[in-house]
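Researcher: Let's run the pair from yesterday's discussion. Sequence first, then tokens, for each.
Model: Starting with the first of the pair.
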Amino acid sequence: MLDVDYHHGNGTQAIFYDRLDVFFASIHGDPHTEYPFFLGYADERGVGASHGFNLNLPLARGTGFVQWRSALHTALRSIAEFRADALVVSLGLDTFAGDPISGFTLRSEDYLRVGEDLADAGLPTVFVFEGGYAVAELGVKTVNVLEGFEQRRR
């Protein structure tokens, strides 16, 4: 599972934190300064035998696409090393520079690259739409992810 929403996937992490059959990665705003504050720290790696099956990649407010994409590549490498059979993407698009309550600076065209990178994982993929708060731009960003994904799959 991969959560790319600006806010940490604390509920998803809690569900799978002690599981051996699911790898969970989350790229999100640093919980030292961003909601939900109480989960999403880099040292949260899983518990017991599942230690190492949870990967949090918190990033500072103001993070741009180059650094964010590097975190995405780290997450996708970890998912590949886990030998996942499929990829579930929690597709939060509040990483957009124009989002009123988030702090990353991705541009609409960056989401084409996100879709390409996700397709390059080569896994059957399900997108779970989580939205964003720059409502007028959500459609463009969503289409860009899906177009990038589909173009790479062809």
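Model: Moving on to the second of the pair.
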Amino acid sequence: MTIKETHEALVKEFESFDNWDDRYAHIIKLGRELPEFPDEYRTDKNKIDGCQSQVWMNASIENSLLKIEADSDAMIVKGLIGILLKAYSGFMPADILSSPPDFIKQIGIDNHLSPTRKNGLGAMLKQIQMYALAFKALAK
């Protein structure tokens, strides 16, 4: 599946819910399904600035694909991480850089978050872009 197809699938996934209570429940479920985040990555270096809650993110390259791991101490934020990992982890850095996060607006998440959570989401997206940029540069 391409990154564009993955983003479209995420939009369809959220369209299947009738209301925002169900969508929030699904976001929390995505957070609960996240793999265990290694303790050695819970460092200040991996902490995302701009988030109201604590968020840690780490990335590596495996077979030319960006692998992103992340965690938070807040359930909604963990769910947002789950969405972002589905959207971006496992793709080539160049594909990530050429794929704007339009799916977030299509899902409507940005309209249903507090301003501080929206800032945190933006900070996480920016970090993913920075990882993609850094690993793309290293591949040259």
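Researcher: Give me one sentence on the second I can quote.
Model: The radius of gyration is 14 Å.
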